[in-house]
Structures are given as structure tokens and as C-alpha cells.
Amino acid sequence: MEKTDTAPRPDRKSPSWTQDPEGVRRSILEAARIEFVEHGLSGARVDEIAAKTATSKRMIYYYFGDKEGLYRAVIEEMYDRIRRFERGLDLGALPPDEAMAKLAGFTFDYHADNPDFVRMVMIENIHHARHLATSTKIATLNLSIIDVIREIYEGGVAAGLFRPGLEALDIHLTISALSFYNVSNRASIRQVFGHDMGAPDILPQRRQTAIDTVMRMLRH
């Protein structure tokens, strides 16, 4: 009896597969991001993702293996995006104190402008980061920002601008926490205190507070 190949194959009825395979992949990731952000991993449906793209469910499995593989790819893409933006800041051309303030401000702005990133990280924490643990890209991606912060910080210590004894990871966690909380807890703070942290007249103050907190942590 002839052996049947059960591995998923691309849907060759879609001309875009051969004309622009990377474009198809990006389209799937974008539709998947919206679906996962809205419904979480368990509630998201691959059928819905396929319906919103010029492809098929079979094509999605061809690219990403299964729903969890697609979910992991979405997270990887979201982390890759923020790291690409950070690399474009050209922080090495600035004095250490200006570079750190710029990074803190950028991180705050990025989270405020990309609430889907915050929501996906929250969803992944619900799953105890088990998908991040199986990613071959995430660790390498995120180590880059620690190296950047370490270089800025050590330059600031050498110049007498920053106090010694701090760890680059602690600085990163502080910057991230101040930026993340302003988005992740916006709804609950609004309900409990009647204070909208994302309102146009409040957000700039929150941003400056985040920068000031980081700089006070670093200075003598």
C-alpha cells in the first residue's frame, strides 16, 4: 500500500503563497495577534484567523505547526519589534544620563502606544511563561537590552553620573515596571480611584514621573 503523507502542505490555490510567502506569514501573524489579544490562547480560534487572511487553516499549520506554535510566533514577533525600536534609538551617541532618560521615555511611550504587547505579556504570565520557555529566540532577543543598559550604566558610573553597585537587570525591570503598569492596570485604577492614567492630560505627567524615578534610582 502506498504511504500517505499526512504532513501539512501549503494551500497552492492561493497565488500569494508563491508570490509573497513572507507577506502571507506576516498577514497570518497580524490576524493572530488580534485574535489572541482579544480572546487569549484558549479562546482564540484558528478558523477565525484563517477567515481574516487570504489563506487557509491548513496553510497556518504549515507555517506554524499548531495553534500554540502560532501563539509563540506572535509573542516572538512582538518582543522582536520592541527590541528593533530600541536598537534604532542610537543611545551610544548620547551622554549616559541622556541615554538612560531617553530609553526610559521611549519604553514608556512604546507600552502606551502598544497596549496589545502588554496584554500578550499578561496572557503569557497566566500560562506561567511556558511558551516563552520553549522559544529559541526570546532569550537572545531580550538579552540585547540588558547589554545596552549595562553599557550605558557603566559609562555613567565611570563619568561620576551614576552611583555604583546596581545591576543592569534591575534597571531594566524598573523601567519596564513603570511603563507596563501604566497600561496593564489602567482600567482598574480608573475604576478604583477615578484616575485615568492614559488620559491626554495625565499621560505626560506619568511619563515624566517614570523617567524621574529611574534617574533618581541611578544618581548619587
Could you explain the architecture of this structure?
The structure is a single chain. By secondary structure, this protein is mainly alpha-helical. It has two domains: 57 residues, Arc Repressor Mutant, subunit A; 151 residues, Tetracycline Repressor, domain 2, CATH 1.10.357.10. It is 72% helix and 0% strand. It is globular. The N terminus is likely disordered. It comes from Ancylobacter oerskovii. Pfam families: TetR_C_29, TetR_N. This is TetR/AcrR family transcriptional regulator. Keywords: DNA-binding.
Number of helices, counting only DSSP H or I runs of 4 residues or more: 12
Q: Nearest-angstrom radius of gyration? A: 21 Å
Write down the secondary-structure element order: HHHHHHHHHHHH
Structural class: mainly alpha
CATH-defined topology of the largest domain: Tetracycline Repressor, domain 2
